[in-house]
Every structure is written in structure tokens, then in C-alpha cells.
């Protein structure tokens, strides 16, 4: 019987994933972070090649990036020596493998939709944040109108394609992401949206606070 093994995402360079769209999405994350007066230390969960971590570090924040991709972490370390990068899976035991904790803020962009168990990321974030710490988490947006339009235009199969390895395996709406965050003790949620027209957005970003 054939067996399958995990194959990590292979990064080839230090630029933003998804090109200019990735740059603009990162800009929106940075605007949200800069609006928080008390943040100094940041953990970037699922940092990939370190693009957002690097931009945060360049703004003067103390940044630690974590990712399961060895190639991504290698690129991040070379491109951003003023931040710390850790090669690790992301789950509830992450804090035990780190010498860093009690962050003011955890950020995570386009990661949770790739996880078989999305709670792994939120459990890791909870363990790393200080009391009342901030979480800014982004994921592709899905809602009734967007999914209806995909169906009516015949693009449902290509959007939810099952014909390639990897990719998105969870599809969040504003409601389902909010419910998952509440389940893990994150309160005072505020959503920001990116791309396309209202209700057809590409991405959503939620800013929440860890329960005290």
C-alpha cells in the first residue's frame, strides 16, 4: 500500500506571497498593528518566508516568526536578521518549544485555512499572549453571496479545487471565524475586509483580544 508523507510549502524568495495583492494585504495588517499603542512584542504565527515579520521588524517591533516550512524559515533568517525565526509546527505545545512568550500581539495571515485543526493555531496564540493581548488574524473571506456568485458563474469547481495537493482545506465566513475565536476566549472582535467589492471580498482580518 502506498503511503503519503507531509510535503512542506517550498519558498523560493523573500517577496510577498501572491505578489502585489500580498503586499497590499500586508500593508493593511501593518496599518492595524500601528493603530495599537501598547504593542512592542509580536509573534507571527505561520510567517512563511518572513515577509510580514521583516516589515514589522523594520518598523521597530520585537518580532518572532514561527513556521513549519524549513525553506521559508531559512529565507526569513537570511532576509531579516533583526527578527528571530523558529522552525516549528504550530499547536498548543508550541510555547513549550520556545524561549519567548507573553507577547503583546500575535499576527497570522492566511494560515488558519490550511490547517486540518484550526484550533491548533488559536491554542498556540492563547499560550503565547499576555493577558488582554491582541490577536490579528486573516483568512480568505467566504459568505453566502460570494459562494452563490461562484456557483452562478460556474467558478465553484476552480475556486474549491480538489485536483491539487495542499491549498485551502477550511473555508471561513465572518460568522464561523468569529465563533471559533470566541470558543478560544478571544473577545472584542472587529473585522476589516480587503479586496474586490463589499460581500465579495478576497480576505477578512479580525482583531480580537485575549480574555483576561
Structure description:
With about 210 residues, this protein is an alpha/beta fold. About 30% of the residues lie in helices and about 25% in strands. It is built from 7 helices and 7 strands. It has helices at about 20-35, 50-60, 70-80, 120-130, 145-150, 155-160, 175-185; strands spanning about 40-45, 60-65, 85, 105-110, 130-140, 185-195, 205-210. Strand 1 (about 40-45), helix 2 (about 50-60) and strand 2 (about 60-65) form a beta-alpha-beta unit. It starts with 18 loop residues before the first helix and ends with a strand.
What's the arrangement of secondary structure elements?
Elements: H1 19-34, E1 41-45, H2 51-58, E2 62-67, H3 70-79, E3 84-87, E4 103-109, H4 119-128, E5 129-140, H5 144-152, H6 156-159, H7 174-183, E6 186-194, E7 203-210
Parallel strand pairs: 1-2, 1-4, 2-3, 4-5
Antiparallel strand pairs: 5-7, 6-7
Helix count equals: 7
Biggest sheet details:
7 strands, mixed
Q: Radius of gyration, rounded?
A: 17 Å
The CATH superfamily turns out to be Vaccinia Virus protein VP39
Q: What structural category characterises the helix and strand content?
A: alpha/beta
Notable characteristics:
single chain, 212 residues, alpha/beta, Rossmann fold, seven-stranded mixed sheet, 7 strands, disordered N terminus
